[in-house]
């Protein structure tokens, strides 16, 4: 049976954030809100938790997870960021964007694209996610909470609890979330390529 925390979407309660981070450190899988949709997350180094998320979403081992980071400097720890990419990232983070960049050696190999050695990263503009990441001190491995066979993410935390109460360790109720995915931008090859137009404005990446 999962735990269910009601956390204030603008002023997250520090005690509940600490408890959530403790669950993550112990190998837990958590549902948490972002600026685009609810997501499933776990500790960056926990393969068992990662495999649990794959089972929940029915994902194969080729599906790319995203590293959800607290800020631009943390992105630079896990990805190679040139001057042009840095300016774009500084202009658009935090926000509803996922960036594909060349991974550094800090990224577990299982999270990289097997051929390109790239990784997806993002910095969400959401107070609960920001508090979790600040307390955790490292990124979350994450995927959007879209259940197998569904076209859109789950948006109601009570529906999420009913659906996943035996599959995850914690559901964070941060209110209703949207269902529009992030905009995905590939910055790995010294140019910006919009792979998916989502919630984030694509104008900054159009040449």
Could you name the key traits of this structure?
207 residues, DHBP synthase, 10 strands, 28% helix, 22% strand
Overview of the molecule:
There is one protein chain. The protein has 207 residues and is of the alpha/beta class. The chain has a single domain (3-200), classed as DHBP synthase. The protein is 28% helix and 22% strand. It contains 6 helices and 10 strands. Strands 1-8-2-3-7-4-6-5-9-10 form a 10-stranded mixed sheet, sandwiched between helices. A hairpin with a 4-residue loop joins strand 2 (30-33) and strand 3 (38-43). Helix 1 (14-25) packs across helix 5. The mean pLDDT is 94.
The CATH superfamily is DHBP synthase
Strand order of the largest sheet: 1-8-2-3-7-4-6-5-9-10
Terminal residue distance: 50 Å
Averaging pLDDT over every residue, what do you get? 94
Question: How helical, in percent, are the residues?
Answer: 25-40%
CATH architecture: Alpha-Beta Complex
List unreliable stretches of 5+ residues: none
List the helices and strands in order.
EHEEHEHHEEHEHEEE
Question: Strand content of the residues, in percent?
Answer: 15-25%
Number of strands: 10
Total of domains: 1
Note the total helix count.
Answer: 6
Shape: globular
> Largest sheet, if any?
10 strands, mixed
* CATH C-level class: Alpha Beta
